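Recap slide: Nitrate/nitrite transporter, sequence and predicted structure.
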Amino acid sequence: MSQATLQQPLSKLNIFSLSGVQMRTFHITWLTFFVCFFGWFGLAPLMPTIKEDLHLDKSQIGNIVIASVSGTIIARLLIGRLCDTWGPRKTYTVLLLLGAIPVMGVGLAQSYTSFLLFRLAISVIGASFVITQFHTSMMFAPNIKGTANAVAGGWGNLGGGITNMVMPLIFAAIVGFGYTKGEAWRYAMIVPGVMMLVVAFLYFRYTKDTPAGNYDEIQREVKVKTKTDYSVLKDWRVWSLALAYSVCFGMEITFDNIAALHFVQEFKLSQSSAGFWAGVFGFMNIFARALGGIFADKVGRKYGMRGKGLLLAAVLLLEGAGLMLFAQAGSFTMAIISMISFALFLKMANGATYAITPFVNEKNVGLVSGIVGAGGNVGGMLFGFLFKSKNITYVDAFGYIGMIVMGVSLLVLVTRFTKKEKVAELNVALENAA
């Protein structure tokens, strides 16, 4: 590979390659995001035990679900700004180091209140997604950016599924050594904290901010281009994408949070079995989110941004329909079948959303990514209120969310994602022709 190529975004994604700073950064970025899910949602599959240990009621569990995504909202907005100005490498490293503290410290919680505060602090780790998408966008050319973002995001999100499968096993192993269940869930959370410290070292040591180098190494002219333009806040396309992400990724993190508990309560599964089936939902990220990005790139090459928007609206509509089927499932088998169906379209919607996001304002990718990413957590927080309510069952909540998702798909359908500069160029051309 030539020196010139090493300093340019790649136009091809070879997932089996570690050659060059672009692919090395790609692999370390998705792996880091994967590990962040262990810290962020490591507690979720252990909630049946934590519920008993801390004597939590449904309302308190609902508050914990809300707290688990609330801190991420503000964090994603701030992280997007830091990516634009400070660089993704330093930003990710600091987030990992700070985030590991409450992850390992949550075992000190002895009451509902202290546990809630630790859960809120842990939620900041969710901002890792913005850095992942920002950094991948920096490393790849426009023709492959959607696919690269979707694969990195999907493989990272896979951590949400693996966490549901693995954390109950770590918990069981600790119990096997003679510790009580109340002690085991506390010691189990030390594992993801240590993992975060390891990837913090890898990220700082082996990645670069851009193909041309780190922000503090490249020329000042390049730095100037990273100044944030807050006029993007007036762009409806940004808020439309944030709304779309609120009902796809927002639903994903909500399901990651309550799936195991739902399966235990609704179908009387053991904690390990419930964690496994909740993990199947997350495990689909190994291909489903990537499919959304791949299809979006293919549609985009033929039909432009309008085609990408139509694809996003379609998969959101199918996600909503699948959720409503899940809500009406009368048996465990039907619940799993419908869960897999809505999971497929939900994760494709995640990928399709971030196949559009980097192109809305290419000079402020970090800020736009932060706003859209924060939208996902706003959705997760608001959905949490449904699962908190004493008057709404979990089954009812899934049905209501399905209807909301279908409504948002219609709003996305009428949004024109064509780049503003392209529209301006077209208007000028028409004026000249006249």
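Confidence is low (pLDDT under 50) at residues 220-224, 423-434.
Residues 16-209+225-433 form a domain with the Growth Hormone; Chain: A; fold (CATH 1.20.1250.20).
(End of recap.)
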